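Summary for the steering committee. One of the milestones for this cycle was to obtain a three-dimensional model of the protein with zinc ion bound, which we needed before selecting residues for the alanine scan. The sequence and ligand used are listed below.
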Amino acid sequence: MRIRANLLVENANELLTLADGGVVSGGPRTGQAMRELGVVEGGSVAALADRIVAVGRADEVRARVDLVPDAHIINATGKVVLPGLVDPHTHLVFAGSREHEFIQRAEGRSYMDILASGGGILSTVRATRAAPASELVDLALRRLDVMLCHGTTTVEIKSGYGLSVDEELKCLRAIRELPAHHPMDIVATFLGAHAVPPEYRGDPDGYVFCVIEEMIPRVTEEGLAEFCDAFCEDGVFSIDQSRRILEAGKAFGLAARLHADEITPMGGAELAAEIEAVSADHLLCASSQGMRRMAEAGVVTTLLPATSFTLMVGRYADARAFIDAGCAVALATDFNPGTSPTLSMQFVMNLAALGMRLHPAEIICACTINAAHAIGRGHEVGSLEVGKLADIVIAEVDTHLKLPYQLGTNIVDTVIKRGQLVVSGGRRIAP
Ligand SMILES: [Zn+2]
């Protein structure tokens, strides 16, 4: 029986399916499986409405599908076709910007030094609190357009620049409003524990009490988030405070994720394993024991090389050690106004290749299927398989080896989101 389709992307030089091909069973990829991209040379993918209905060699797909009369056919000859990129860690909703911190860092001031003097996160908190929700939505929509043009089709967004009950709710409601105006799929995370706000200076436990007793119940009552996160760092939130916050979140149905072991070794990786977080992120200072525990507990390792680059720390998280320990590695932008002002997963790919020395196939896996698992969407996106969302990117290159290779320009030509053409010729088009 032939399958109906209204979209056909045809005859790619390489179609990267990321289909598991029996190497794994539905989970994130680890070890050698991170290099299995399921490449089909001369490959096609067909969709009906928002779902993929056929994937395979061009002639096989043509033989299998019945195109409806007004079907959209896109010729991908000479190009690489891959799943829409997934960005599993961003702080995309905020007002203001922090370009002056580039100068401060160039003059030798550290991130924690800038934060301690009222800059950093807290300057974004002031600007975000001063902005009406409608402005936050408008700013976020423009950023989502840029992401889409660079091939990202699913994004996680955290709150964390409000830091009071009302302001955190304002930011989360702004995140909730975005899908009504934008095709991007969005996963919301409550990050009330991003920094201790000025109102609680010197009383971090008082603020932790507010996060647990006031914020989490309100956030879940309105259904505003799927995940709860905490910035576990020396001088921000301790292991014990982070544990209490994430356990409270879990008790209210919020899955856990964690900013762990970024600047100082804290045992954040071990905590992520202990509380069975879906993902632990940053991890420059994770211990080898922490890596092993994360692997055993199935915590996805989400690495953020653009942040290390921007902070000029001179090194990156040890991606190879995580892979060798058996962890599933994902990559994300960490888009935020202070420490990672990039919306481009392509830039992250470049840094993963040049800074972390990952193999191109590992990088692509980390930005697609593993990134999808890092936000609990592995069943919906991250690979080109029948039944999954038709989130498809066409890149102006002839081999996937060039995806992390070409620096500083956008190589994404076409983006299809849920079966709809949303970027063509590198430009955003309706809907
Ligand atoms: Zn972050």
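Key point for the committee: The radius of gyration is 21 Å.
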